[in-house]
Amino acid sequence: MSTVPRLTLNNGVEIPQLGFGVFQIPPEETKDAVLQAFDAGYRHIDTAQSYRNEEGVGGALKESGLDRGDVFVTTKLNNAAHAPEAALEAFDRSLERLDTEYVDLFLIHWPLAMLSNFVDTWKALEDIYGSGRAKAIGVSNFQLPHLRRLQAETTILPAVNQIEVHPYLTQTELTQFGREHGIVIEAWSPIGQGRVLDDPTLTRIARNHDRSVAQVTLRWHVQRGHVVFPKSVTRARVEENFDIFDFDLSDADLADIDGLNRDERTGPDPDTFDRIPPA
Ligand SMILES: NC(=O)c1ccc[n+]([C@@H]2O[C@H](COP(=O)([O-])OP(=O)(O)OC[C@H]3O[C@@H](n4cnc5c(N)ncnc54)[C@H](OP(=O)(O)O)[C@@H]3O)[C@@H](O)[C@H]2O)c1
After folding, report:
1. Of 3, 162, 168, 221, which one's alpha carbon is 20 to 30 angstroms from that of 86?
2. Are 133 and 103 in contact (CB under 8 A)?
3. Probe target for ligand 1 pocket from 228, 231, 235, with the most ligand atoms within 8 Å of CB
4. How far apart are CA 138 and CA 51, in angstroms?
5. What distance in Å separates the CA atoms of residue 143 and residue 92, rounded to the nearest whole number?
6. What is the mean pLDDT of the chain?
7. DSSP 79
8. At 213, is the secondary structure helix, strand, or coil?
9. For 169, what's the count of Cα atoms within 13 Å in the CB-facing half-sphere?
10. For residues 230, 236, 239 and 241, what is the CA-based torsion angle, rounded to 10 degrees?
């Protein structure tokens, strides 16, 4: 079984560079999907309050018999809970659903900059971090101006920024900022929800390495220093996505993949996304 490398976050916490994402896995299927991922070797799960499947993650944690300390668990604040008091309460409920005393990483899911003062929300996350119930805190879908405000107005810099990244959206500015300031980039929709899988350049590189396009794309992320957590409910794909640590892409391969960027999102644009789901 592959050994997953670990990155060290800016507070010293270690994070496995490959994990398993559970977005769009129905609540009743999540426990089995996560158990399947554990069985394939994954020890890092990315969920969110809005996915409504934290209980399934918690159930899998318990049923797996794995030591809690051997699994890295991330969850994210629901958009409806940005007010600091609401954020603290929502976090408590996450711990209950996950049936755990702490999470490894807690993120603000979206900045909602038109609706919320995310700086106040971040201060609630700083309190949670201070309590020890989140081993690290970070943000998701934050753009440069949002990060600069946190830098100027708060005391703890996010450990990660979880953003959409794949070969069609390489996010050079945000990744450069992350490198300069010690903020690890977590790449969501790392294979563009499947959209990059027919790409001719990726297909050529995959053929040269005798690998699948998904594997080459995930390997590009890893070599670029991103954390990734592809989602799949298909056993063969779960295993395939995990099997990316015994080959290397060349500098030329990496540059060719970088060159595929066309600033194309599969998900919402954080500058205009202001959706607060019903509570
Ligand atoms: N912070 C945010 O705002 C945000 C937003 C979106 C996602 N995320 C996180 O990022 C994770 C991953 O992103 P994602 O789920 O949007 O997209 P993704 O992982 O890029 O793609 C998932 C899709 O690709 C298919 N797939 C997976 N591996 C494959 C393979 N080897 N070959 C062919 N098809 C494959 C899956 O199908 P099957 O399941 O049918 O196999 C699924 O339809 C999420 O689960 C979530 O944890 C975060």
Report:
1. 162
2. yes
3. 231
4. 18
5. 27
6. 96
7. G
8. helix
9. 20
10. -40
Nearest CA to ligand 1 atom 14: 189
User: pLDDT tens digit string along 67-77?
Assistant: 999 999 999 99
- What's the start-to-end Cα distance of the chain, in Å? 42
Kindly give the number of the ligand 1 atom that is closest to the alpha carbon of 191: 20
Q: What is the DSSP letter of 17?
A: S
Instruction: Kindly list the catalytic residues.
Output: 51
Cβ pair 111, 145 in contact under 8 A = no
Assess contact for 235 and 36: CB atoms under 8 A. yes
Q: What is the pTM of this model?
A: 0.98
The predicted pLDDT at position 57 comes to 98
Count of beta carbons in the 10 Å neighbourhood of residue 253: 21
Nearest CA to ligand 1 atom 39: 232
DSSP string over 118-132:
HHHHHHHHHHHHHHT
Q: What single letter denotes the amino acid at residue 40?
A: A
Distance between CA 267 and CA 249 in Å, rounded? Answer: 27
- Quick check: 20 and 229 in contact, CB under 8 A? yes
232 alpha carbon – ligand 1 mean position (Å) = 6
Kindly give the number of the ligand 1 atom that is closest to the alpha carbon of 192: 20
**C-alpha 220 – ligand 1 centre gap (Å):** 16
Pocket flag, ligand 1, residue 270 (CB < 6 Å): no
Cα of 197 from ligand 1 centre, angstroms: 12
Q: Residue of the nearest CA to atom 41 in ligand 1?
A: 232
Q: What is the pLDDT of residue 116?
A: 82
Helix, strand, coil percentages (3-state) for the chain, rounded to 5, are 45, 15, 40
